[in-house]
């Protein structure tokens, strides 16, 4: 638990997404924010960055994991 609290947000988000067994996750940015204890805007901004880097593909209500590093 301490690793999650004290690591940078991008690493926390990657670890969170890796916790799902399926490649396409049906989840909202709001739900992720609530689970990680942050604001939806922070999650959206980081996911948009991940999409730009080719790590995920975003669509309404779902996230498709391509390569999380």
Structure overview:
There is one protein chain. Helix content is 52%, strand content 16%. The protein is built from four helices and three strands, in the order H-H-E-H-H-E-E. Strands 1-3-2 form a three-stranded antiparallel β-sheet. Strand 2 (56-59) and strand 3 (62-65) form a beta hairpin. Mean pLDDT is 90; it is low at 1-5.
Question: Top keywords for this entry?
Answer:
alpha+beta; 3-stranded antiparallel beta sheet; single chain; disordered N terminus; 16% strand; 69 residues
SSE blueprint:
Elements: H1 2-6, H2 9-18, E1 24-26, H3 29-36, H4 40-52, E2 56-59, E3 62-65
Antiparallel strand pairs: 1-3, 2-3
Q: What percent strand? A: 15-25%
Helix content: 40-55%
Distance between the termini: 22 Å
What is the residue-mean pLDDT, rounded to a whole number? 90
Oligomeric state of shown chains: single chain
If helices are DSSP runs of H or I spanning 4 or more residues, what is the number of helices?
4
Strand order of the largest sheet: 1-3-2
Instruction: Name the overall outline.
Output: globular
Tell me the major beta sheet: 3 strands, antiparallel
**Low-pLDDT segments, ≥5 res:** 1-5
Q: Rg from C-alpha positions?
A: 11 Å
Tell me the total number of β-strands: 3
The string of secondary-structure elements, in order, is HHEHHEE
Q: SS-based structural class?
A: alpha+beta
